[in-house]
Design a protein that fits this description.
lipid metabolism, 316 residues, alpha/beta, PI-PLC_domain, globular, phosphoric diester hydrolase activity, single chain
């Protein structure tokens, strides 16, 4: 994918598409979006099973865990420039650390959330017609005070760019542009009710296949799309294969990228190419290692199908 070729894709869509609800557009996303930088020297994250925590006291195991934790090679800025607009986020405090600092996490601790939010905000300021979805869907070692700290940081980072909770069907690119809003935050924790700029997690369902088998994955994606609510929510198709503990053990040295992902991405990409956005169609599609294939461009191109349908309706 040419550097920055998808940086302004939302602003460059055919004008007719700017009036479609965002829930009807095809939007590329990334899975465990902040795991591109993982700190080997940090304690093992609270999201890991006890057995792995014990193992992790051995430094070699930490190096191997890093291989399985890093599911995105691109930084935030690079993912945004590549066209990714939905980010799947897991966050944690560092148990034993003073203060309320919150970190992105996947296996090992990553960067401070604040640093990531700043990187996103810089991109959005430079690309005012682009809109993003930040889905805070897993929280570890966090009490209410940690959440309040994090929510205040989100407000501080994005300010007036935050899109307040609204009927899903009302949110189009045109709607956001008129309000100069660019950020939708989905927050899977009851405190969302107290902040108008936090959307509830149930507005962003992301069914998870939890399989290493690509054919089972595609069957699951088809089934869950068929069950998608016609109104009132966005929808995430997680085109992701999940390593089992025994898969990790068997392929420990090679790492995630060299086993599940390389072999199956072409199959997953072919499935994407057969999809159509719109009511009951695909909306957000997430994948591991977004830079390995032209994933984002393939998803974005699906929006042309909406245009064909739109032309047919306006002609008749």
């Amino acid at each position: 994918m040419a550097e920055g070729s998808n940086a302004d894709w939302m602003g460059s869509l055919a004008p007719a598409l700017s009036t479609f609800p965002l829930a009807h557009l095809a939007i590329p996303g990334s899975h465990d979006s902040f795991s591109y930088w993982v700190d080997e020297k940090s304690p093992v994250g609270p999201d890991q099973a006890t057995a792995i925590k014990r193992l992790a006291k051995i430094s070699l195991v930490k190096k191997l865990m890093k291989k399985w934790s890093v599911t995105q090679n691109l930084t935030f800025k690079e993912q945004l420039e590549g066209g990714i607009r939905y980010f799947d986020l897991r966050v944690s405090s560092k148990p034993g650390e003073g203060g309320q600092e919150i970190y992105f996490i996947h296996g090992l601790f990553g960067i401070k959330v604040w640093d990531g939010l700043m990187e996103i905000n810089t991109f959005l300021s430079q690309h005012p017609k682009e809109a993003i979805f930040l889905d805070f869907n897993h929280f570890y070692a966090m009490e209410d005070q940690h959440h309040i700290y994090l929510i205040n940081r989100i407000r501080e980072a994005f300010g007036s760019k935050l899109c307040t909770m609204e009927h899903v069907e009302n949110v189009t690119l045109q709607y956001l542009w008129e309000k100069s809003q660019q950020v939708l935050i989905f927050y899977h924790y009851p405190l969302y009710q107290e902040y108008p700029f936090l959307w509830p997690g149930n507005k962003m369902p992301a069914p998870w296949a939890n399989t290493t088998n690509v054919h089972k994955l595609l069957q699951f994606l088809e089934t869950t799309l068929g069950e998608r609510a016609q109104h009132g929510t966005f929808h995430v198709s997680q085109a992701i294969l999940t390593p089992r503990v025994k898969t990790i053990a068997r392929h420990l040295i090679r790492g995630l990228k060299n086993t599940l992902v390389h072999r199956n991405l072409p199959v997953i990409l072919n499935w994407v190419k057969t999809q159509k956005p719109g009511i009951m169609g695909v909306n957000i599609i997430t994948s591991d290692f977004v830079e390995l294939v032209d994933f984002a461009a393939t998803v974005i191109a699906l929006n042309d199908l909406l245009l064909e349908g739109h032309r047919a309706v306006t002609k008749s």
